[in-house]
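Lab notebook, bench 4. Still working through the backlog of constructs that have no structural model yet. Next entry is a single chain of 91 residues. Request: give me the structure tokens for it.
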Amino acid sequence: MRNSWILLKKSARQTVDRILCGHLHRAIDRRFAGTVAGTAPSTAAQLRLSLTPDAPLRFVFEPPGYQLHLWCEDSGLVTHTAVFGEWPDPH
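Model written out:
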């Protein structure tokens, strides 16, 4: 993350449950500054998943997605990641 030290400095002064960013064309979660940082998938094409640092960025036609965040006072934040589309029922 570019200039992530700014976010780190701000989050160190208060309790941060989660850092949410959307959309980055792929759902990604990681530990950051004592909390979890996450990105949402795109409602259009996704980025090809590659764990090689030098791999070129390429779009793929995976289903578009979204995230739904639910805050409950007793349990905190719960995030659901889902995709758009119609698929046959397996049962």
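Notes after review: The longest helix spans residues 4-11. The longest strand covers residues 65-72. Flag for follow-up if needed.
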